Amino acid sequence: KAGVTQTPRYLIKTRGQQVTLSCSPISGHRSVSWYQQTPGQGLQFLFEYFSETQRNKGNFPGRFSGRQFSNSRSEMNVSTLELGDSALYLCASSLWGDRGRVDTQYFGPGTRLTVL
Amino acid sequence: AQKITQTQPGMFVQEKEAVTLDCTYDTSDPSYGLFWYKQPSSGEMIFLIYQGSYDQQNATEGRYSLNFQKARKSANLVISASQLGDSAMYFCAMREGDNQGGKLIFGQGTELSVKP
């Protein structure tokens, strides 16, 4: 079974631009979560989507948004990029992400975003 | 307050020896899950092992075992017979409760270096 895929793998943007990152979960997985990883802040939860609905949101400004499609694929968008948005963005999928049940999240290779 | 604490920023171990990576957590929720992930320099997060708060026995997966001490709120990862390919960052993570969906809280990580 194919793992989680993320595109693009690398991206260079300038301040003020916007960017869209894509994530395809493992086949059959319905929950997709996004994380930002930086040397200073470590790994931080951005948001989670389940059945096309945002179910959980981390403490990030409104410039960070996402969506999920009916095939469970997800995209995240960052508008008005800032230098501090330079990071590795990781997507993870899980089978259910079910309340009351802890299931494992499997991560993709990440998209490394550099903002100049 | 830190929910997940990894007190060892870096560790060295001789090839074929065992090593323990420390993780303590803080939660008031009786239902939670603890995870360990490995992140090589390529960036992808690789799932290693999972321990549920209600699990009676310590989790094991091949050369990985989790030393779960609930009263002390610790979930240390033990890697037996270290290999050169084990050199990587290791992250401890927690999912709290029944209402957090796919949100994982990560520690700051421990960088493990295996010496030949």
Describe what this molecule looks like in 3D.
The complex is a heterodimer of chains A (116) and B (116). Helix content of chain A is 0%, strand content 52%. Chain A has 116 residues and is mainly beta. In chain A, the strands form 2 sheets. In chain A, strands 2, 4, 5, 6, 9, 10 and 11 form a 7-stranded mixed beta sheet that branches. Chain A has a 4-stranded antiparallel beta sheet with strand order 1-3-8-7, with no helix packed on it. In chain A, strand 5 (42-50) and strand 6 (53-57) form a beta hairpin. Chain A is globular. Chain B starts with a strand and ends with a strand. With 116 residues, chain B is mostly beta strands. In chain B, the strands form 3 sheets. In chain B, strands 2, 5, 6, 10, 11 and 12 form a 6-stranded mixed beta sheet that branches. The model of chain B has no long low-confidence stretch (mean pLDDT 93). Chain B is built from no helices and 12 strands. Classes of the chains: A mainly beta (116), B mainly beta (116). The interface between A and B is medium-sized, with 29 and 28 residues.
Question: Key terms for this structure?
Answer:
heterodimer; A: 116 residues; mainly beta; 7-stranded mixed sheet; 4-stranded antiparallel sheet; 52% strand; B: 116 residues; 12 strands; 0% helix; 50% strand
Outline of chain B: globular
Average pLDDT of chain B, rounded to a whole number, is 93
| Cα-atom radius of gyration of chain A | 13 Å
SSE pattern of chain B = EEEEEEEEEEEE
The helical percent of chain A reads under 10%
Largest sheet of chain A: 7 strands, mixed
Oligomer: heterodimer
